[in-house]
Design goal:
Blueprint: E1 2-10, E2 16-24, E3 33-41, H1 44-51, E4 62-63, E5 67-75, E6 85-89, E7 104-107, E8 112-114, H2 121-144, E9 153-155, H3 161-172, E10 177-181, H4 187-193, E11 195-200, E12 216-221, H5 225-233, E13 235-243, H6 257-261, E14 265-268, H7 276-289, H8 292-297, E15 299-303, H9 307-315, E16 322-326
Parallel strand pairs: 9-10, 9-12, 10-11, 12-13, 13-14, 15-16
Antiparallel strand pairs: 1-2, 1-4, 3-5, 3-7, 3-16, 5-6, 6-8
């Protein structure tokens, strides 16, 4: 059996490349479940992996894609049988184990979660790791005890995948959302998703004071660096910040002042190795709490052959919202 996939490799001169190519099922990695992939997606991490802008990929050659949704074709795992509809996010897939930008995938059954009622395979990948991560952030703020009456929630990187879905989720849950973006032309779109106010990322992206005016009760941050430091500095007493990304940088040039003077809590959100019960809860919540009409409005679809260009575009900031990859179209 042959199938199409986006394969990342290095040539004889160690030059990095990604290309759409046919593979045989003998190229599939080890695993106890084989899935006929229906949809995948392009997240920021996929952009880094496909372009080689960061050392995401740890072995070569490797099929790209940290996400997929599809139908089980073969299984020796007790939890899954042919015909089951499944989702995969993370677990090193697309990094050290061949991933979901492919028409066929083989993985460990322990990595899969069931597609929840209320979502189809395309919607699941319109959500993808970005939306699943946004839900993990929202759940962290909820576990902290934040309620809509406690104050605004800041969402940084608001035009990206995590940001757009976080805005939609938080607004539906009753929170007033401040959206920080470098693409202020997207203000009307972000307000349609549920943002009450849009601020220019320039307010947060430069070096700031150790402690600023208390402006928000909580934060969903996918940007890192000075943006995260300033977000913490502007968080209200006993507020919470959920950090899940590094679009501006991996550094954290901040101060302990928000933490020891205001009791602010910084939550690190890991989507890759999150335990299965947390994953299932997040996906059940997404099926229940996400406005699917808004999801469709922030999603556009590409073919498998167009995925490499989409990866370049997402790093260049030319994409708002989410990209779904229909892997049946090469």
């Amino acid at each position: 059996m042959s199938f199409q996939a986006i394969v990342i490799d290095k040539d004889e001169n160690a030059r990095y490349r990604a290309e759409l190519r046919p593979l045989s099922d003998q190229a599939l990695p080890e695993g106890d479940v084989t899935v006929g992939v229906q949809y995948s997606t392009i997240n920021y991490k996929d952009g880094l992996a496909i372009t080689g802008k960061a050392p995401v990929v740890r072995k070569f050659p490797l099929v790209a894609g940290i996400d997929f949704s599809g139908v089980v074709e073969q299984s020796s795992h007790p939890a899954w049988k042919p015909g089951d509809r499944v989702i995969l996010n993370g677990w090193g897939v697309g990094e050290s184990h061949s991933g979901g930008l492919s028409q066929l995938a083989r993985v460990k059954g322990d990595w899969l979660v069931p597609l929840p009622d209320g979502l189809n395979a395309r919607q699941a990948m319109a959500i993808g790791t970005a939306g699943y991560t946004a839900m993990l952030c929202v759940m962290a703020l909820e576990r902290h005890g934040l309620k809509p009456h406690d104050g605004d929630i800041l969402v940084t990187g608001a035009s990206g995948g995590v940001g757009t879905i976080a805005i939609s989720l938080l607004s539906k849950l009753g929170f007033r959302v401040l959206a920080s973006t470098g693409r202020t032309a997207e203000a009307d779109f972000l307000k349609q998703l549920g943002a009450a106010e849009v601020i220019d990322r320039a307010e947060l992206s430069s070096p700031g004071k150790p402690l600023g005016k208390e402006r928000w009760a909580g934060v969903v941050d996918s940007v890192g660096s000075h943006t995260l430091a300033n977000a913490c500095a502007g968080t209200r007493y006993r507020g919470a910040v959920a950090a899940c990304g590094l679009a501006q940088g991996m550094d954290f040039p901040g101060s302990v002042a928000p933490f020891i003077l205001r009791g602010v809590t910084l939550y690190g959100i890991d989507s890759v190795m999150a335990p299965k019960p947390l994953r299932r809860e997040a996906w059940m919540r997404l099926a229940r709490d996400l406005d699917l009409a808004k999801l469709e409005a922030l999603t556009h679809e590409v073919t498998l052959g167009e995925a490499i260009k989409a990866a370049e575009d997402i790093l260049a900031g030319r994409i708002r919202g989410r990209v779904v990859v229909d892997v049946s179209r090469g």
